[in-house]
Every structure is written in structure tokens, then in C-alpha cells.
Amino acid sequence: MEKGALLYEGKGKRVYRTEDPQSLILEFKDTATAFDGKKREELDAKGRINNRINAFLMEKLAAAGIPVHHRRMLSETESAVKALDMVPVEAVVRNVVAGSLARRLGMEEGTALERPVFEFFYKSDELGDPMVNQFHILAFGWASREEVDRMIELSFRVNDVLVPLFKAGGMQLVDYKLEFGRFEGGLVVGDEFTPDGCRLWDLSSGEKLDKDRFRRDLGDVLEGYREIGRRLGVEL
Ligand code: C5P
Q1: Cβ neighbours of 229 (radius 10 Å)
Q2: What is d(CA 44, CA 11) in angstroms, rounded to the nearest whole number?
Q3: What is the ipTM score, two decimals?
Q4: What is the number of other CB atoms lying within 10 angstroms of the CB of residue 15?
Q5: Average pLDDT of 139-161?
Q6: Ligand 1 touching residue 100 (CB < 6 A)
Q7: A single Gene Ontology molecular function, please (predicted)?
Q8: Is 209 left (phi over 0), alpha (psi -120 to 50) or beta?
Q9: Cα of 197 from ligand 1 centre, angstroms
Q10: DSSP at 194
Q11: Engineered SS bond to 86: which of 51, 102, 150, 181, CB 3.0-4.6 Å?
């Protein structure tokens, strides 16, 4: 697969066209950012680690019958994916109170939830990804009612697959963010599933292994990512 023109550069990834209009190349960067890019650092090997963890998890989701954009790993830091028509929202699933939910409702991080919570956010760097609900999505024509229902359904199916997978490695999947896009008439999980976009806590100690280490200066970030990979059995 030939790497073509740069289509988009995000904070953690570059997206390239290929000779196949149905395929793109994702390149995972070593850059770590937080707080809308205000905090930024180069973490040697983050791109490689995230590419591998992402491929491993996307393959697990695909094996469980969940449609994903991931096609295959191409190199240490690159993967081929399906070219999607992206829905401009982020879907967040939470199993435990943390992060913005803790702040928004004044709740203590780590508070158990009786059932998982689902939230939509509008993808906009300028606005800081504000929270929206399905009425906004329909009113602004970002997705159809069927697509809204499908995003919620697929997001919870991802939870059903990944919660036990992480638990087997002694980790609690606290929350995560997904993005969706259209491909050949259906919705597909896009973007990435890496420690940059989820929270993972050690089941017994509660130690944070994910990007919160970077956001909150909680210790060696890559050490946490490597530990996640090791516990999943991903060769890094
Ligand atoms: O910040 P908040 O608590 O809303 O984040 C919920 C989950 O979604 C976290 O796992 C976080 O890493 C992820 N997230 C993300 N990208 C964003 C916002 C949140 O990956 N733009």
C-alpha cells in the first residue's frame, strides 16, 4: 500500500491517502498532548506502542463481530484502515466515575456506577468538545436516528468485549472514547483504541496506567502503556 497525500494531522496521529480510495493509512505519532494541546511532550516509542495496542484491540473487536475500520498493521507506527465518512461526535462509555464526569457532577473519582453511562460530545477543538445529546445530533443533521441508536449499541458491545479482556489482565476499564464513521452503508468503529483514549486502573491497587499519568504528572507515561501491553499479551 502506497502512502499518498497527508489528509489530516491530529494531535496524536497523521492520516494519509493511499492509491485505494477505500483505504487510508494512520500514522501514530510520538507526541502526547492534553488540555487541548496546551500540554505537549514527545514520548519516544509512544507511536509504536499505541499502534500495536490499537491493532490488538481492534482485532479483538472485529473477532467479536463489531465492525471496525482497522485493516492491518503496515509498519511499526502505521496501520491501514478503511476510509470512513466520519460522524462528528465522540462517544464515551463510563463504568466508573472519573475525569469530566467527576468534575461536572462533583463526584469523587472511583465512585461505582450501578450501570454504565453513555455520553456524546461534539468534536470541536475550538469549543473544547462540548457535551451534546441525541437531540443535538438529529437537529444539526450530524447523524440519523438509526445511526445514533447504532453508535450507542456498538459502544456498549465494545464494553462487553473489552471489560473482561482487561479484567483478565488485572485492569479495570474505567471509561473510553470511540468515534464512528460510515463505510459501505453501515457504521464502523473508527479512530483508535489506545491508552490515549481510555482509562485503565490496576484492579487491586487502583494505579492509573493510562494517559492520566501524562495529564496529571503521575509518573512514567510509557511505563504505564508498556504495562498495559504486557498485561494484554501484546508484543511491544
Ligand atoms: O475527559 P473525560 O472524563 O470526559 O474522558 C472520558 C474518556 O474519554 C477518557 O478515557 C478520555 O481519555 C477519553 N477522551 C478522549 N478524547 C477526548 C475526550 C475524552 O480520548 N477528546
Answers
A1: 19
A2: 15
A3: 0.98
A4: 15
A5: 98
A6: yes
A7: phosphoribosylaminoimidazolesuccinocarboxamide synthase activity
A8: alpha
A9: 6
A10: S
A11: 181
